[in-house]
Amino acid sequence: MPYAITQLCCTDASCVTACPVNCIHPTPDEPDFGTTDMLYVDPRTCIDCGACAEVCPVDAVFPAETLTGALADYPAINAEHFAGTEPAAPPEGSPLFHAWGPVRFDRVLPADFPTLDVAVVGSGPAGMYTVQDLLLHTTAKVTLYDRLPVAGGLVRFGVAPDHADTKRIGESFARYHDHHRLRLRLGVEVGSGVTVDELARRHDAVVYAVGAPTARTLGVPGEDLAGHLASTTVVGWYNGHPEIDADAVPVDTVDPARAVVVGTGNVALDIARILAADPARLDGAFAPAVLQRLRASRVREVVLLARRGPEHAAYTRGELLALLRRDDLDVVVDDHDPRVGETIDAAAPGEHAALLQGVPRVRVDDVPAAGERRRVVLRFHAPPEALVGEDRVTAIRVGGPDGPGELATGLVVRAIGHRGRPLAGLPFDEETGTVPNHAGRVDGRPGTYVVGWIKRGPGGGIGTNRRDAAETVAALIEDGKQHLVGAKPRRRGFLRRA
Ligand code: NAP
């Protein structure tokens, strides 16, 4: 019986490397790598060895026959990915399926190379894949900085507490915190505690993995009203972020009992799922003070607002399917606009809008439903136009086929994506919210590198950072090789003086 990859796939491709028969795709060498929500096991060539499950950092791979309940669809989802393709055949003369190319040593430093002293700023996934790559492929000494007193970045303070398996990737990163070549400097904020220039003077090279910490704004009237929160506040709150107060999200006083979340990305889905959950399902993964407030929550309905149609929804298939499978809440599509149902019905199997086929469609009232069961409502073609209220939000005005309408609500969360923040001393592109760079090399600052969302913009899951970090580390190694081969005494900052 083959194995199958499930919803929590982080796409970091650890399984691809472990698989002896090359049955997991897309591989990082294939053109569609990075374009799919997850990786897939080809059941026709899987030999059931379980190597993939052993190395998966988020426990997302299982024998197909053991998958039941919310994961029951995944054997078919894996098989579907290979529909219409021929099963891979082993290369001629080889019992294995891997067509291994010639061994490459392009990321190895010469033996007489001086020990690099590298700083990595930010201990989230991008920073930790960089640390891992540096420690495994070079003899570099690494100093890992984070402005918070605890390491982990978005793994600790971004991944939802009810996604315990995804959070487990933090354990595989934390292994490196004790590495004899790693020094951990927590509670140090680069840009205020220490400047970019000071850091550059102290280390041969500096890699910034500072993410995109700011929540984008809606740009509509009423954004300053109380009762309107950024996704970063809500996500930080339910993760017990040290800088966010336990009372920051007033779920226990929401009136009316409807929360509106603007956006349909996975962050919006995380927030909707947690706000609409039956409190009995929430456990000690949440901080006690947050759990207490969630248990006293008045929220009965969460409306997710999309400015475009269901074919453009930003959630991934796995996250939506998991929401649809919940038995403690209902999911419905608001059919206020005939285009929504038409698009869903016309979607071919495999198209994004087809995921909503079979989901009940109801006309959602201006005031929240008073039903017994909690529910999540997906409302498409409803761009937010204004937040309404005197001193706090009482409604949100949205566009629609018959002109603007208002949805009564006591809590609006904007989950419309993130934005990088400028760091004094580094260049910054205001339009993209990133640090201008080429393959991770910061423009105009030799010896300075970026990785993760501050490098490529705020998109992609945890595993996307592995390949991204490999590119940045390769650039750093290449620069070192170019300028250091034969250098005798080790001089700090040689990369910058190159
Ligand atoms: P995202 O995926 O980029 O989604 C942003 C959403 O906001 C989209 O629905 C977008 O709609 C909407 N939006 C943007 N500007 C808007 C505006 N002015 N008015 C109304 N709607 C607006 O962002 P995200 O949810 O923050 O996620 C960031 C990344 O983290 C994603 O790659 C995501 O998959 C990943 N992530 C993954 C997980 C997981 O795997 N469980 C969990 C959390 C985050 P348009 O499409 O119309 O622009």
From TrEMBL:
SUPFAM superfamilies: 4Fe-4S ferredoxins, Nucleotide-binding domain
Keywords: FAD, Flavoprotein, Iron, Iron-sulfur, Metal-binding, NADP, Oxidoreductase
Cofactor: FAD
Enzyme class: oxidoreductase
Reaction(s) catalysed (UniProt annotation): 2 reduced [2Fe-2S]-[ferredoxin] + NADP(+) + H(+) = 2 oxidized [2Fe-2S]-[ferredoxin] + NADPH
Its EC number(s): 1.18.1.2
Signal sequence, renumbered to the chain: none
PROSITE patterns per record: 4FE4S_FER_1, 4FE4S_FER_2
Pfam families: Fer4_7, Pyr_redox_2
Protein name: ferredoxin--NADP(+) reductase
